[in-house]
Amino acid sequence: MADPGNRPRILLLATGGTISMQVDAERGGAVPRLTGGQILAAVPGAEKIAELEVREFGRYPGPHMTIERMWELRAAVMRGLADGFDGVVVTHGTDTIEETAYLLDRSIPSDAPVVITGAMRNSSELSWDGPANLMAALQVATSREAAGRGTMVVMDEEIVQGAEVVKTHTEAAGTFRSPNWGPLGVTDKGIALFYRESRRKATLAPDTPATPVDLVKIVAGADARLVESSLDTGARGIVLEALGRGNVPVAVVPGIRRWVDAGRPVVITSRSLRGRVLDTYAYPGGGHELREMGAIFGDHMTGQQARIELMLAVGVHGGDVAAIRSVVEAGRYAD
After folding, report:
1. Is Hydrolase set as a keyword in this record (predicted)?
2. Which of 86, 129, 147, 152 is most deeply buried (CB count within 10 A of its CB)?
């Protein structure tokens, strides 16, 4: 981090999102419009806590952030750190903050803090939360205690680990949560306070993430059609949001077996918001059968987190399913 006698140097990367939006009367809704500099101008006092530089990455709504753009954003973050910035703050659309935060947290090999923020209300609304969120993000990025904690999401005065963050509400300001472990800390009257240690795995940084990797949600009465279609159309891996502890209807099993026989990775997570998957049940379609068959278990990861994890793991290890299993399961399951 920077010398205590100087303000830390912080790079602001603006990517768009609701924080950059205004209502367009002709279109009848909010669209990206504000630059990073314009958003920063709405944050009084920001220049007192950091020496700031703004770089415009783009003005993308959250749903327009593809995996390729997220990887380009990672490169922009890495360039900023190589340029000597003490931390990086990213303004981002909230619809895909989960995926971007997970990707950056798992793949950036640096102790400098990377903080993602955004807004749940656009700048045409009286309750625009963008400026307060950006100030809180800057407070975290300039905190000495933020070093070594990887990528974090800061919204509504809470600090959440990037690899744990889940969007839990469609419009509430406090939507971003870590359902299993809670926040790392909070911002309070200009100070970042951390109350627990970060849970981080070793950096996983391929030359590029492997795509496509598909995500299929399992429901009552599901069959193998979507699972088999993913295999037949060339996906390099698949994540199944299974039922409960990691179980599927019997009719899904033949599709999983085809994936395993083809030597491509299948990761099992749960559609439940909290808890981990485990091979507890030995009935047909139960987690025990799936694991014996060769499926990989995704611990506490959500489906969208496991999808990014699998993209990174396949990007590093190619078709080596045993190596991919080692990365994804991280020693949390007995052989």
Report:
1. yes
2. 152
Classified as helix, coil or strand, 117 is: strand
Residue type, 24: D
pLDDT, tens only, 305-331: 999 999 999 999 999 999 999 999 999
Region of residue 19 (left: phi > 0; alpha: psi -120 to 50; beta: else): alpha
The CA–CA distances, whole Å, from 118 to 112, 192, 320, 333 equal: 20, 18, 37, 36
Pairing state between β 185-188 and 191-194: antiparallel
Domain boundaries, the chain: 9-194, 213-328
Alpha-carbon distance of 301 to 307, in angstroms, equals 9
* Class of domain 9-194 (CATH, top level): alpha beta
pLDDT, tens only, 196-248: 999 888 999 999 999 999 999 999 999 999 999 999 999 999 999 999 999 99
Active site residues: 18, 94
- Asked if domains 9-194 and 213-328 share a fold, the reply is yes
Kindly report the CATH number that applies to the domain delimited by 213-328: 3.40.50.40
